[in-house]
Every structure is written in structure tokens, then in C-alpha cells.
């Protein structure tokens, strides 16, 4: 599977979790690293906004 997003591309969480909604409502993240596919075959990314960096699967993010 190939990556849909590229490094330095701006993305948003598709469905923010509880802590994301309270702390980072509407936050835009920058893709900082492309990760390999997991056991299910879905690729992952490292995304960052300010001091917050997290790993997400491709299905968890959308273009900003």
C-alpha cells in the first residue's frame, strides 16, 4: 500500500478523540514521517502540531 499523504502536508484528525477535542479542537497537524504498514496493511504517519506529536493510521486523518 502506498501513502496517501506526504511529509510536510497539513492534515486533520478525521474523528478527534476526547482529549483532542478538549485540547486541540480543529487543530491542523503536519505530517513529519511516513511509517510502514501495520499488521492489517494500513500505513501510518507521525504527525505534529506544536509540541504534540503522535502516530496515526491513514484512516484516522484527512487533508486540511
UniProtKB/TrEMBL annotation:
Identification of the protein by name: Uncharacterized protein
Organism of provenance: Microvirga arabica
Lineage: Bacteria, Pseudomonadati, Pseudomonadota, Alphaproteobacteria, Hyphomicrobiales
Amino acid at each position: 500500500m502506498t501513502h496517501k499523504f506526504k511529509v510536510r502536508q497539513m492534515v486533520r484528525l478525521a474523528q478527534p478523540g476526547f482529549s483532542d477535542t478538549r485540547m486541540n479542537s480543529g487543530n491542523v497537524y503536519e505530517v513529519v514521517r511516513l511509517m510502514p504498514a501495520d499488521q492489517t496493511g494500513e500505513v501510518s504517519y507521525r504527525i505534529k502540531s506544536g509540541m504534540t506529536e503522535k502516530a496515526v493510521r491513514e484512516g484516522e486523518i484527512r487533508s486540511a
